[in-house]
Amino acid sequence: MVMTSGRLGLLLASLVPLALAACQPKFSDRFSEVVGPRVLALRSDPAEAAPRGKVDYRLLVVDDSGIVQHPSVTFAYCTEPKPVNQISDVSAACFGTGDQVMEFGTGLAPTGQIPAQACSQFGPNVPLTKPGEPPGRPTDPDSTGGYYQPVILHVQADGTPLDALGETRIHCGIASGTVQQLQEYSQRTKPNQNPTLSAVTVPTLGDVALSEDDGSTSPLSVPHGVKQTLRASWPSCPLDAECGDGICSPGEDETSCMQDCAQNPVGCAGPEPYAYFDPGTFALSDRHESMRVSWFATAGSFDSDHTGQSAANFQNTTSDGVWTAPSDPGPVFLWVVLRDDRGGVDWKSFRIDVQ
Amino acid sequence: MVKKLLGAALLLASLCAPRSVFAQANSAETPGHQPKLTKLPKLVHFEEAPYPDSEKAAGKTASVVLQIAIDDKGGVVDALVQQSAGAAFDAAALEAVKKFTFEPAEIDNKPAPVKITYRYDFVFTVEPPTPVINYDGYIKNRFSKQPIPGVKVSIEGFGEAQTDELGHFEFKEVPLGKHVITISGPNLTPVTTEEELEKGKKLSVKYALEPKEEAEEGQAADLEIVVVAPKIQKEVVSTEIKAEEGRRVPGTQGDTLKVVQNLPGVARASFGSGQLVVWGAAPQDTRVYVDGIHIPLLYHGGGIRSVFAGDLVRAINLAPGGYGAEYGRGLGGLVTIDTRALRPTGVHGFVAADAIDSAAMVEAPLSSSTRIAIAGRKSYLDKTLSLFTSKDVNDFVPIPDYYDAQVKVSHDLGQNESVEVLALTSRDTLTRTLANPDPAQDKSDYTLTQFSRVGLTYKKALSDGGNVLLTPWVGQDHTIVRDSFGGTPTVLDTHSTNFGFRSAYRGRASEHVIITTGFDVEGSRSSLSRRGSVTLPAREGDIAVFGQPPSVLENADNWDTTILSIAPYAQADFALLGDRLHIVPGVRVEPYLNTASRRVPGTSADDPPLGVTKETTALDPRLSASFQVIPRLSFKAAWGYYHQSPEASDLSSVFGNPLLDVEHGFHLLGGDTFKFSDQISLEQVVFYSKSGALVPRNPSTTPFLAQALVQDGQGRAYGTQILLRHELSGRFFGWISYTLMRSERKDHPGLDWRLFDFDQTHVATVVGSYDLGRGFELGARFRYASGFPRTPVTSTFSSLRRDLYEGLSYGPQNSQRIPAFVQVDARIAKRFEGSWGKAEFYLDVQNITDRENPEEIVYNYNFTKRAYITGLPTLPVLGGRIEW
To answer: Which of A190, B100, B124, B274 has its CA 20 to 30 A from that of A336?
Structure first.
């Protein structure tokens, strides 16, 4: 017997409130809180170097009292590629001892020389294999098309051992593509330039700039327990290359713009444009860097540990972090680290006095 | 022939001469008038006198002459013996004549009393004896225990009978000796058996049959008539659940196929995954078939719902291992879903809805021989959940949007010949965007899982009891995984065209041998595109930490594959020792042909692909045996060799290895089943499986090109499981299942064995459902499962470029466990029935004790603290269903 539509229109469902609570635990400690010795950043100058190129390093080590001025630091290059079955960014063997680790300096600012085989160990060049063996599998690039030389840091600060991985972008070619594409790639992309953290201001206090913790100016005073917006800013990059702007942009070279590109060419210290070789389509495209700001403080709390601007929003040259001053008065040390997504970094250290 | 004696009375009435007529004159008559008999009395009721038992031995004829006085109303007022034939005859005659009635005589046209002389004759005759029923029985449905009317029972060379409404049949005077009995009828595949009739004994039997719509494919020929012993199952170890049971298990929200998750040998799926992990095998190693058509998955995303309408399902069968030669291509278990026969009369259907989705089905005959059913389901939980939950839930548990639909058409070509067309489709999509002020934490997910199939099944039951089955099918699969984490993509896009053809012949080679042979062909042609890190998606065996941002390395590949295998197979069932011992050897010869379009990664857009073809012929011997010691106790064992093709997604020259070969393994199991009664049984099984040529990641720091994956892995699993089961009958059904097992992997030679990522040492499930009467039903489910193993992080390093902490060193792989999962679910339902149909409303409450079950380990930012993500709290789901 077929039911009439009237009878079919009966109770079918009752949406019982599911009343689901959040299932993920929240930890009380935050990435942005500096409560003990931490390694916050490593800067390579230049930000991108070719094999055998010299690189000046600078390390930022802090604790809850400010910058650690004299930590014990050992720098080493790792020469062992990461196996594909390891999820981390570097082979675990790099933190061990052996031939795969090449020490090259100590202290906070040593100078190193990129190993000669960097582009075959960590780059697109086909790794060396024994005669008769099939060719090796090159390292995959990152999402910007770049390759990195691992820099292993063993730090001792305040009696606490800290292991850290720094990475210097290495100037290699592209893994595949035609010769013409390689040439075009070289013209359309420049070695990475470290970004410049221009300033950190406080819009909620009339855009006053935070005082760098270098003793040159008095620290800013803020009331306790109050939220403050901190604004990190960096330079913009020209949309089109312009000879004479002091920036050796993609598309410019010694021939087309000696002014900007002849000696010690400098790239843009903001979200640089670069050429990206797509490994799927084997085509070159233009992109811009994304910029990421890491916020650290010895007291108080940040709403977000990291902020920034994606590549799609490269024309925005600021990023805000919201910091709530601690309820206890006293000095607070802050560090703002600016990174581009091609391995470049800059930072500033500040001190705020909480009233 | 037994002679029966039948007493017969021959009436011979005569009137005496008028002189002897007794007449009573009327005082009013005229004096001197002679009264005149104007009408004779007429016998209206004759009473038959039984032949006296005391005289039967003599067997003679006797006559008793009596004088009978009849009144004016025709009643007998007196009777006297005038001529005796003996005391016994006299007494019998007197007793009888006193019960005579007459039309009264008339004198002068008026009723008047008279006396008559009557001779009562007794004649002895021997009548043929009444035939004796010496063979009868009842025929009922093996599962529902209901009688089956209209079943024809034929005795070869003698005759036939048909069962009545009670399922009863009977034969009279069947000659002694052995007879071949054939049972046939509508919806029954003819089956034969043999009975023996012995002198002086009546043979009463009970036959329990499985009507055609309930019979498994290809099994009719060996459908042993269940007289006392249960039917021997096709797979040595398998659990079959009827659709009616499956729908009523708590926690399944009325979804029949979700019951598989509660069967022994099945590990509890990780939260929100819906994966089937059977006897320690990887999820992709267990194959799922619907009426012989391979489908890629059984559940929609998250395991929320199955992809096939439960109302079209007759039974679900899970063989966790050791299955026969008819199936292959998988190192794990086998799930076979049999659709039911469509009802020949009436328009039927249902609509159902709950908080998760709505479903409906319509089923109707198109003609006397053609029937159709259309079913579908659509979800809306992704839209309704946000009304009631915190956003955290959707962050952790992706809630898919899904639908599925099925169409089945069946057509009878003859009494024992039919063709069915089954079409089905399923689609899951998940879209999730989690914006973050940190561009490195911006996340977006898009997942599409879609497949469709069309298959045709031709069945023919042969007159010799054999049957033929042909099932060609074709389908399309499309899966997309498109994630972005901080701008780093993970993309896997797969388009596949799949096809298959299954043929089977099952018949008696001799009195004690049943053979099954056929072809099993399956192939797929896929186009794949992948982008992202070589370590994503994660593989079993990766040491990964939940919530860890993925690698930012990126590569890409586009490739095509063809995976094809053609497997002729054969197996023979030898019935020995009076059909108590069955030995079933089988073999499957399966050439695999796999191609990948790129042997090495391309280097430019114009780079012509140089492909690779790999051919391997696999030989899969199988052997099973079952022995029925006594009707209630049987033992069984099975051994088999199995092979499995590599996944198309692993044949990438960039992310995998185009030269991968088939994986292999063997299963060994043994056990026993004891039937306490027709409904209650206890099954115990021990099992061991070993596999090789598994595919882990390459551990080398300098892997060769196109060898991100290697084929060095091994696996093993061993354990035991028990199942105490009360099948659906009357008011109650339920089961207790417990599995104790260990599943391990060795990724490369020289490494130690480690726990399999999905290893669960203990899995216990207790399910029960009781009909309280008046339409109320109450059910409960208890589950206990060991937590999944995880690898502890023992030290970390700070990754300064990515500004996060990563694991540096780890404890032994999978050396820790998430705490055990314990949960109680309950279900209460109320059914209404009427002439219009049935309605059912249910409340399915998961986690009724509100236990916070740990589901995953999470760490703080620098791995110095850890905690657990817990599963859902008490989750009530109210639903309703109306069917007609």
So the answer is: A190
| CA atoms of A115 and B407, how far apart (whole Å) | 66
- Which of B124-128, B223-227, B696-700 shows the lowest per-residue confidence on average (mean pLDDT)? B223-227
Whole-angstrom Cα distance, residue A76 to residue A149? 11
Which amino acid belongs to residue B248?
Answer: R
Low-confidence stretches of chain A (pLDDT < 70) are: 1-23
Distances (CA, A) of B451 to B293, B402, B427, B446, B471: 12, 12, 7, 17, 18
Interface of B with A in 373-402 (CB under 8 A): 384-385, 387-390, 392-393, 395-397
Distances (CA, A) of B166 to B140, B224, B593: 9, 22, 56
Q: Which of B131, B140, B125, B186 is nearest to B159 (CA)?
A: B131
Please name the residues between 215 and 234 in chain A that touch chain B, using a CB distance below 8 Å: none
Q: How far apart are CA B245 and CA B264, in angstroms?
A: 16
Is the minimum CB–CB distance between B484 and chain A shorter than 8 Å?
no
In sequence order, what are the residues at sequence separation of 6 or more whose Cβ sits closer than 8 angstroms to the Cβ of residue A149? A77, A114, A115, A118, A122, A167, A168, A169, A170
DSSP H helices in B113-171: none
Which chain B residues have a beta carbon less than 8 Å from that of A310? 439, 442, 487
Q: Which residues of A touch B880 (CB under 8 A)?
A: 10-14
Which of A3, A167, A319 faces B836 most closely, judged by CB atoms? A3
**B798 vs A10: CB contact, 8 Å cut-off?**
no
Cα B696 to chain centroid, rounded: 37
Q: How far apart are CA B555 and CA B494, in angstroms?
A: 17
Q: Pick the residue from chain B with its C-alpha nearest to A137.
A: B705
**3-class secondary structure, B391:** helix
Residue A305 token pair: 């540990």
Q: Is A21 on the interface with B (CB under 8 A)?
A: yes
Residue B18 predicted with pLDDT over 80: no
B706 contacts chain A (CB < 8 A)? yes
Q: Which of residues 121-150 of A touch B (CB under 8 A)?
A: 126-127, 129, 133-137, 139-143, 148
B829, B877 in Cβ contact below 8 A? no
Residue appearing with tokens 């010691």: B629
Question: pLDDT of A141-154, one tens digit each?
Answer: 999 999 999 999 99
Closest CA to B468 of B501, B502, B505: B505
Model pLDDT, residue B393: 57
Per residue in B584-633, pLDDT (tens digit) is 999 999 999 999 999 999 888 888 889 999 999 999 999 999 999 988 89
Q: Of the given ranges (B79-88, B263-272, B555-564, B728-737), which has the lowest mean pLDDT?
A: B263-272
